[in-house]
From TrEMBL:
Signal peptide annotation: 1-22
Protein name: CD276 antigen-like
Organism listed in the record: Echeneis naucrates
Domain called Ig-like: residue spans: 25-128, 138-202, 204-301
Biased segments, Basic and acidic residues type: 374-389
Membrane topology per record: Single-pass type I membrane protein
Cellular compartment(s): Cell membrane
InterPro entries cross-referenced by the UniProt entry: BTN3A2-like_Ig-C, Ig-like_dom, Ig-like_dom_sf, Ig-like_fold, Ig_sub, Ig_sub2, Ig_V-set, T-cell_Activation_Regulation
One GO process term, biological-process aspect: cellular response to lipopolysaccharide
Record SMART domains: IG (SM00409), IGc2 (SM00408), IGv (SM00406)
Amino acid sequence: MTLVKVSLVWGTLNLLWSFSRGAPLVCVITKSCILPCSFSSGSDPVLHWIHMTAGDRPVHSFYHNQDQLAYQNQNYRGRTSLFKDQISRGNASLQLREVKVQDEGRYRCYTSTMRGNQEAFVELRVIAPVDEVDLHQVKNTLTCSSGGIYPEPELTWSTSPPSDVAPKDKVSVQQTDQLLYKISSSLILANNTDLNYICTISTPSGSRKATMLKQNSMDVTGNEVTILCVDSNTLKRLTWRFNQDQVILTRTRTEVSVSEEWRQLVKDESKSGSLTLKDFSYDHDGIYSCEWIDAEETLITNIFLRKQGDPEKIKERNIIGAVVGVLVVVLVVLTSVFLYFKISKVKKSNRKNKPEESAGKLNSSEETPQAAESSRDETTQHFNIKDEKEMDYEEE
Ligand SMILES: *[C@@H]1O[C@H](CO)[C@@H](O)[C@H](O)[C@H]1NC(C)=O
Ligand SMILES: *[C@@H]1O[C@H](CO)[C@@H](O)[C@H](O)[C@H]1NC(C)=O
């Protein structure tokens, strides 16, 4: 009974105390922040700003009408200043620049004048909001990640329309030397679904999401094709990729850069994110993704482009193939016939003094009339020409 009473009173006291402390001062990482403090002005003030959890050394001191930084906590070197012109009016506010996570905590503002001493406290919170959420697909694994976040973020997956999605493993959270958090999570994409995947990373101060829209496919009929990204007027950065990891081009508000390999193929691209490719061939079939990053979110679209089989073209290719095949066969036949006659000719000249054997040879070749028939005209002609040439050569 008494215990309950005591804890109730204690709780109430605590509550009153935190009310009196006021809401914490929220400072954004790397930015400047003003820690407020006022006092009853008097002559020759002494001011000390102390970070209560960071040791005895002051963050900033002022007396004898000037800054006194000989004993300053070195973590604050070059990052603090007072509003000198305001001190005489009782304003002891401290400006802190390039805020770090380590600056978090409770600060005491101690002031002393001929009229007495005063103390004021400031509770400083640091936030590093989620800046960009990266969504990256490798094969059927989708990975969502971000970094440079404080305090510890949370990551959630969802789909639209809603479905059961669960990350592959536990969400991974790491803290860097600067006390900032990195977070990532992967999931396996369902097969052939009509789902948009959404990854949301949030901290108490806000959240950001990245969405991968379901894949579309498109048949390319001509040599040129225009594909669209997302249209939004707050573009921060846009990247077109081929088959997930090959960068085609990136665009920021001020710059466009097309990668070397794609320069021949990119005909046009626009601020709204559309991309026009020329000389589109079967080799360029694949997934074209556009990653659109704006002030609020990241959006990824995937379009599967497939050069349509043009029936006329295919027929043409088949005809060409057949012609080439026939030519190859003819060439092989001609070569072998030529070689055959050449060899027999050599044999003949070797046995010039044995004419009866030559005659026998001639007869034996006549024994296979079908083979001779199959390529008669060209072979005979060809043979004649070759024969003449050979004769010329022999004469020389
Ligand atoms: C002190 O002066 C600064 C700079 O002019 C101002 O921003 C701040 O609000 C003042 N603080 C108080 C407590 O008067
Ligand atoms: C998708 O299909 C492949 C094989 O076709 C299978 O191995 C895999 O488990 C399937 N994935 C899901 C999420 O159903």
